[in-house]
Design brief:
With about 675 residues, this protein is α+β, with helices and mostly antiparallel strands. It folds into 6 domains: about 60 residues, Helix Hairpins, CATH 1.10.287; about 230 residues, D-amino Acid Aminotransferase, Chain A, domain 1 (2-Layer Sandwich); about 80 residues, OB fold (Dihydrolipoamide Acetyltransferase, E2P) (Beta Barrel), CATH 2.40.50; about 50 residues, Orthogonal Bundle (DNA polymerase, domain 1); about 70 residues, 5' to 3' exonuclease, C-terminal subdomain (DNA polymerase, domain 1); about 80 residues, 3-Layer(aba) Sandwich (Rossmann fold). It is about 35% helix and about 20% strand. The chain is built from 24 helices and 26 strands. The strands form 8 sheets. Strands 2-13-10-3-9 form a 5-stranded mixed beta sheet. It has a 5-stranded antiparallel beta sheet with strand order 16-15-14-18-19, with no helix packed on it. The radius of gyration is 30 Å and the shape is globular. The two termini are about 55 Å apart. The structure holds ligand D41. Ligand D41 binds next to β3, β8 and β10.
């Protein structure tokens, strides 16, 4: 390493790589394709190889260095890293604000400003910058002493080795949370499972384990990020008067901050934020275990001070735990729409993720083997948001002496047909097809569901009754239900029967895509059904298509194509379609639209910012269906930019180039005009 002055073009190359790194990892707004970034990086590496004595420690190639020789060393935090008090409900949050107002001598209902932010579930760390250069990274540890993890934090791309811009204090300690992305965690565990390695329990443990590596090469391979949530020591320079302004300034210096940082004053605003973040929680790419509310103004923070290591001016609002411990009382087997036999654990009821849970899916026998689960076991159950509860771990130490292995049934528990398991598939299926009452019922539920024929009022309970009373067995039986028979059922009055019959009649007029979806062909979801309908225009042509022809349809691979062909090859399926048409089910058929005639053929769109109503992938799918190309960067060739919340540089570039910009709301209106409803 040397302090030699770099040639100007190399200096520029370093800066350019740093900028793209910052745009990608901190702003989430890359402006060049990954391949181009790789090219720049390789160029710099090549030059450094030829000039080994000119390599700067802050060069973007120097993130992965040597192992620390003496293992991890302890460091003492110059300013202790405080902990957080907890609140578990709105009342406790209200008490927190009242205590603050009391201390500040304000009336109990005065409103001061709070910063609200997600509580990331990771490892708290401290970064020390001297003259803008990262000189040390350390874990929080017990708040007083932590471990020196400089060699590992240097490998994290969202942590700048050198601060950007200017005006930063000579000595600046930044504090934040290092966490692992959910997707990266899943991929890492999938790989570990494949090679028979030990799995990590959750992303937080995986992040902790990654930072505890002596070899920074290992840490560098882990998908870690860091978001900053406060500053520690500040010397030789000033920072703003409040928390939010400080975090924004840190962001401008190249450090990542969480995008969901907002201000709130009243309790009502804080509760609304809680509600919004709880909704969003599952869609976030990282785990959060709550929210943090902080008095925004530093002078007020100082007046409030702290008690026993926790500041009086901040509180963590904890979400209900997503994991809980319970016991497996028995394992039963359910039969799904496609005959798939799914083992389900019946649990001693347990409160988790905000509801009482007494069933959890076990997916298949491989999963039971992987978990090593037996009936009677104590297990950890996970429930996040509205996702189906899942058994994630068996606490084998607590296994009772009378625990019993799970035995897979020999025949279908509903219709006693033979169970088959296709080579290489994890799932076993009942071979009864529509002769199995369970499959029939599931198929009917699917047929009437919202995205299929959308027969509102024909719910799961009613179908259950109709199937068990043998009033409905096949799809077309729905169309021959009589008022008289329906009136005989419990809880079915004159009005509701009339309404249901009217809905059944009205929804006979449907679309080809809904009809294809409703048939319940394996692996044909709504998107595939739409693509098939668009491509062929007529049901007869879908029926007649062979595997090769089907594979030409967007997103149809060999497996889906095979499922479609084998569905239409079965005479009883064709008979059902025929009966449905005879019962009056119909849809408009038309020649498929040629690509060149699509409304947005040849147009180039760019999506930027957060699209709150539909998300980027849905927006992209709509645009592509209309024939547009969706590009990642704005250029003169761009026809239109759709700018969601917090759009940044792409929006600015579009404005600079005079390109049409649509807000998300305008975009939805625009799509509606083209016949796309969201
Ligand atoms: O996201 C977090 N985990 C987070 C942790 C956060 N957003 N803010 C935090 N703020 C603080 C204070 C108020 C003490 C500056 C924290 C933590 N502390 C914290 N993390 C671990 C212990 C304390």
């Amino acid at each position: 390493m040397s302090v030699n002055v770099l040639p100007q073009e190399i200096q520029q190359l370093c800066e350019s790589i740093d900028l793209h790194n910052y745009r990608y990892h901190v702003l989430d707004e890359p402006s060049i394709p990954d391949a181009h970034y790789d090219k720049l990086f390789k160029q710099l590496q090549a030059w450094e190889k030829d000039n080994p004595n000119m390599v700067s420690a802050q060069s973007p190639t120097q993130r992965v260095g040597a192992k620390p020789k003496a293992g991890f060393s302890q460091i003492t935090h110059e300013m202790p890293m405080l902990s957080l008090d907890n609140a578990f409900n709105g009342d406790e949050l209200g008490d927190f604000a009242r205590r603050i107002n009391d201390r500040l001598g304000l009336t109990s209902d005065s409103h001061i400003e709070y910063a609200c932010e997600p509580k990331l579930d990771g490892i708290a760390v401290s970064l020390l910058y001297q003259k803008g250069v990262l000189i040390r990274g350390a874990t929080r540890g017990d708040g007083t002493t932590g471990e020196d993890i400089t060699h590992n934090v240097r490998t994290i791309a969202s942590i700048p080795l050198k601060l950007r811009g200017s005006g930063y204090p000579e000595k600046l300690e930044v504090r934040g949370e290092i966490y692992m992305l959910k997707a990266g965690f899943a991929a890492m565990n999938a790989h570990a499972a494949k090679i028979g390695d030990k799995l990590f329990v959750n992303p937080r443990n995986a992040a902790a384990g990654s930072l505890r590596q002596l070899d920074p090469k290992i840490t560098a391979r882990r998908p870690l990020e860091m978001c900053c949530y406060s500053v520690g020591v500040v010397e030789g320079g000033d920072i703003p008067d409040d928390h939010i302004a400080t975090l924004k300034l840190l962001n401008s210096w190249g450090l990542k901050i969480n995008p969901h940082l907002v201000k709130a004053t009243s309790l009502a605003e804080k509760l609304a934020y809680i509600e919004k973040m709880q909704q969003l929680r599952n869609q976030l790419p990282y785990e959060i275990d709550g929210l943090v509310f902080k008095v925004n103004n530093y002078r007020l923070q100082q007046r409030l001070g702290f008690i026993s290591r926790a500041p009086r001016w901040a509180i963590a609002y904890k979400f209900p735990a997503e994991e809980a411990v319970t016991t497996v009382e028995k394992v039963e087997f359910q039969v799904g729409r496609t005959g798939a036999i799914t083992p389900v654990a019946r649990l001693a009821p347990v409160f988790v993720g905000g509801v009482t849970v007494s069933n959890a899916t076990l997916h298949n026998m491989d999963e039971i083997a992987r978990l090593g689960l037996q009936v009677g076991d104590t297990v950890v159950v996970h429930r996040a948001g509205d996702v189906i509860p899942k058994v994630v771990r068996v606490i084998t130490e607590d296994r009772p002496a009378n625990s019993q292995a799970v035995v897979f049934p020999d025949s279908c528990p509903v219709c006693q047909s033979q169970i088959v398991r296709i080579e290489g598939e994890a799932i076993s299926r009942c071979s009864g097809g529509l002769t199995c009452a369970a499959q029939r019922k599931e198929a009917l539920i699917h047929y009437v569901s919202k995205k299929a024929l959308d027969i509102d009022g024909l719910g799961e309970k009613l179908i259950d009754t109709l199937v068990s009373k043998e009033m409905v067995a096949k799809f077309d039986d729905i169309y021959y239900l009589s008022k008289l028979n329906l009136m005989r059922l419990e809880r079915m009055g004159d009005k509701s029967v009339d309404k249901l019959l009217a809905t059944i009649e009205r929804t006979k007029q449907t679309t080809l895509e809904r009809f294809i979806y409703a048939l319940g062909i394996r692996e044909v979801g709504e998107a595939t059904a739409r693509n098939l309908s668009k491509e062929f225009g007529y049901l007869e042509r879908v029926i007649a298509a062979d595997v090769e022809r089907l594979e030409q349809v967007t997103d149809v691979g060999p497996i889906v194509a095979k499922h479609i062909v084998s569905f239409f090859a079965q005479a009883h399926n064709l008979a059902v379609i025929k009966s449905l048409r005879e019962a009056g089910v119909n849809w408009p058929e038309a020649e498929p639209v040629a690509a060149a005639e699509l409304a947005l053929a040849g147009k180039v769109y760019v999506l930027t910012g957060t699209l709150e109503l539909m998300g980027r992938s849905e927006a992209k799918a709509h645009l592509q269906e209309l024939g547009a190309k969706v590009s990642g960067s704005v250029s003169k060739k761009t026809d239109c930019v759709v700018a969601g919340a917090a759009a940044g540089s792409k929006l600015k570039k579009a404005e600079d180039l005079g390109i049409e910009v649509l807000s998300e709301a305008d975009f939805v209106v625009f799509l509606n005009k083209l016949g796309v409803t969201i």
